[in-house]
Amino acid sequence: MSASEELYQRAGILLSEVPNFNRQGALSDQEDQWLAAALAVIESASEIVPVPDVLEIFDAKYAAKMVVSQIANAHLRATNARIVISLLRRVLGRLELQVQTAIVGAYVPAGDVDEAHKAVGAVLRTAVKDVLLVDPFADETILKAYAEQAPDNIVVRVLTDPDKHRPTLKAAREIWKKQYGDKRPLQVRLAKAPLHDRLIIVDGERAWTVTQSFKDLAATRPTTIVSTPNEIAELKIKAYQEIWSGASAIVPSAGPSP
What is the mean pLDDT of residues 219-226? Predict the structure, then answer.
């Protein structure tokens, strides 16, 4: 993996895990570690891409210090945190120009839903056997807007939360079965325990983290679709294969299951 790809992954993961800095009190260890990791990525990226420059790095470091020191002023803390977050997003955008986004992922600005469709489609089209889409809040969108972009004859699997998924998912599954049959195999299952991750797993070998539910991608907030580093991907793929094996099939509304 190139330095650009590694930094792209790290920046994407950080942007998917931004803490809530709009609060009073001392920072938690997790929040402090996030700031340190964000600054490390910003500084490292300056050796590869034209953004950030020396002045921007200085501003980001100063803003991070203000985030730490503003114990009583939540508004001022959040304002300074946004400076760091904004620069990290710009770094991600610059790095995206240097990497194969179909493999590494993508950053999608708020409101650009079409670009979110393209970014997910680019990942799905790398599949040769199987894709697994994990989304606790899955609805018909996960099939109509995203799963349909997978190649023909690829097995599409959707894993969702038994309590959080939307009723429209079941109807969309039945429509899919009638429309595509065996040409585009589809399985939808409900996990036995609550789900939290939003993932794309391709061919049981590669994983991407998605920062929002598929039904909300880039609708009102920026979305990051980022490749999971190999050592983490292996653990997630194994864990979700076990969850899938123990999950139950979603029950059709009427008639026998196709």
Answer: 84
Question: In whole numbers, what is the pLDDT of the chain averaged over residues?
Answer: 89
DSSP structural state of residue 153: T
Which pairs from 52-55 meet CB under 8 Å and 24+ separation? 52/87, 52/90, 52/91
- For 238-254, give the DSSP string: HHHHHHHHH-EEPPPSS
Whose tokens are 């992922």? That residue is 105
Burial 123-152 (b: 16+ CB within 10 A, else e): bbeebeebbbbbbbbbbbbbbebbbbebee
Spell out the residues 6+ positions from residue 97 whose beta carbon is closer than 8 angstroms to its own: 49
Phi, psi (rounded to 5 degrees) for 173: -60, -45
Tokens of 178: 């009638």
Q: Pairing relation of β-strands 186-190 and 155-160?
A: parallel
For residue range 228-249, list pLDDT tens digits in order: 877 788 999 999 999 999 999 9
> Do residues 160 and 135 touch, judged by C-beta distance below 8 A?
yes
Residues of the chain above pLDDT 90, percent: 64
What residues does each domain of the chain span?
3-96, 104-249
Type of residue found at 4: S
CA distances from 179 to 103, 145, 214, 256 (A): 30, 15, 22, 16
**What CATH number does the domain located at 104-249 have?**
3.30.870.10
Question: Quick one: which of 25, 47, 48, 29 has its CA closest to 37?
Answer: 29
| pLDDT over 80 (residue 255) | no
Residue 110 binned pLDDT confidence (cut-offs 50, 70, 90): confident
